[in-house]
Every structure is written in C-alpha cells, then in structure tokens.
Amino acid sequence: MTGTEEAVDEDALFVLTAVLLTPAQFPSVLGDDFPAACAALGLEPYAEGYGLVLGQDSDGARWTVVVDDVSLVAVAIASWDCGMEYDLSPDERSVVAALPGWPLAVAVAAPGVPAPHDPAPEDGMDLTPLAPPDTENWGPAQRRLGADEIALQWAEWRQQIKDEEAFPSADARAGGEPKKKHPGIRRALESARTYVESPPPAGRVRSSFAPGGARTLRADGPGWSMVARTDDIAFLLLDEEPGEVLPVGRGPELPGLLEALEKMAVRPA
C-alpha cells in the first residue's frame, strides 16, 4: 500500500480513506449491529474488530482491504482528523481480505490513475463489488445514515426543537394520555427497553462522549434508529416515516431508559 503522492506501482493500493469496524465503531450503513455489519462484508464477527482501508489500484479500480491491525488504522484516522499526514501501510500479514468496490461513498480519487471504477471480474471471483446505498430511496441504510448525521450535528438539531414540541415519552402516564403519540415511537422505545433485559448483539447500543459529562447514545433495531443524550431528549428515525426525524421528550420514562442503555452500551476503547 502507498500514499497518493508516490509513483504508480502495479501492485500498489493508493489509500484514500479508512474506517474502523469494531463493536463500538462501525459504518452503521452496513447493519444494525456489529455482527450484521461484518456479515455484509462476508467477515466473521471477530471481537477485536477490523480496519477497512479504501483505495484504488494502479488501474483505478476500487478495493476495500480488510486488516486485523485495528490500532494502526485507528492511529491513521486520528492523525487525519487532526489534519496530520499519515502513511497508512498495513503489513501484508495483517490483511484479512481484499474486497472489490467500496461500501461507502468516497468523494476523492487517487491522482495519476484512471477514475474510480469497479475491478473487472477475475477467474473464480464471484463477489459482487461493494457499493454505497442508494441515497434516493429511503430504507434501513438511509435511516441509519440519518441517525449518524444527527449524532454528529446534535447541537444544530437540538436548537430546532423546543421542549414542548417534542413528543412526550410514549409511556408517559402523568397528566393523562400524551397529546401527541406515534405507534412507531412506542414500538421503538419498547424494543429499546427489551435490550436492557436481554442484551442484543454487540453494537446495537453504542455510547460516545458528549459535553458536560453526558453521553451520546446510538441505538438501532428493526425499523428504527435512536440518537439521544443521557441528559436530554432523544431523536427517532423510522423506516415507516421516510426522512422524518421524530423528537422524544424526556417525560417520566425516558431518563431511566437512557441510563439503563448507557450502562450496557459498548464504548470506544
């Protein structure tokens, strides 16, 4: 593997970006949990996880190289996020698989090679090239991508919602029946509650840093995705409501649910 500034080598992979595939951090576009994300790439759900290196070969073909050196990939990503250069060159012994295509959209391309394209099928290769989801049609992948975006832009989304505009907790009993209810919200919260009693597959509930000592929770289930702050409200996205973001007020039940989910969530190392 090589950086994009070096001379073209017929056997080189010109690295464009990389992502982690671990129980705590994985491209949620691939699935609701870590095992599902691994299965989408034909990988075993190895507990230590993988690094996914996305690049082009000397012909410009897209490749996703799976490596088991998670620490190396994590260091590279952290360096790039800080605006530092880092030559990500995993040892060949760490390579688990080389998959045609990219599972994620990549906006850049390697200079000096043909434009990105799927590699030509080789003898004995029956894998369909990986491809990012169609953003034109709403579905589970788009729903999870939407939740990811809300988690990244929490402050912006939160400013758009006044507390009194948020749906009360679906199980709120104080003050009579909630004025605003949605059956999908009730189903999602009930599904999330079952996770507390019976732990789901790794990665269904993830916890990350949030300001003020709080935590940001990302949870997914059949037909729903949730983003919440342990000290604030939650946002739900549903398969049945294309493009809609449904705020859920704290009410009497949500704080306890979020606290319980936080205790069993996986966290980045």
Q: What's a concise summary of this model?
A:
The chain has six helices and nine strands, in the order E-H-E-E-H-E-H-H-H-E-E-E-E-E-H. By secondary structure, the chain is α+β, with helices and mostly antiparallel strands.
How would the blueprint of this fold be written?
Layout: E1 13-21, H1 34-40, E2 50-57, E3 62-67, H2 70-81, E4 95-100, H3 140-152, H4 154-159, H5 183-197, E5 205-209, E6 215-221, E7 224-229, E8 234-238, E9 246-248, H6 254-264
Antiparallel strand pairs: 1-2, 2-3, 3-4, 5-6, 6-7, 7-8, 8-9
Helix pairs in contact: 5-6
Structure description:
This protein is of the alpha+beta class and 269 residues long. It folds into two domains: 1-132, no CATH class; 140-264, no CATH class. The chain is built from six helices and nine strands; from the N terminus they run E-H-E-E-H-E-H-H-H-E-E-E-E-E-H. The protein has helices at 34-40, 70-81, 140-152, 154-159, 183-197, 254-264, and strands spanning 13-21, 50-57, 62-67, 95-100, 205-209, 215-221, 224-229, 234-238, 246-248. The strands form two sheets. It has a five-stranded antiparallel β-sheet with strand order 5-6-7-8-9, with helices on both faces. A four-stranded antiparallel β-sheet has the order 1-2-3-4. A hairpin with a 5-residue loop joins strand 5 and strand 6 (215-221). It starts with 12 loop residues before the first strand and ends in a 5-residue tail after the last helix.
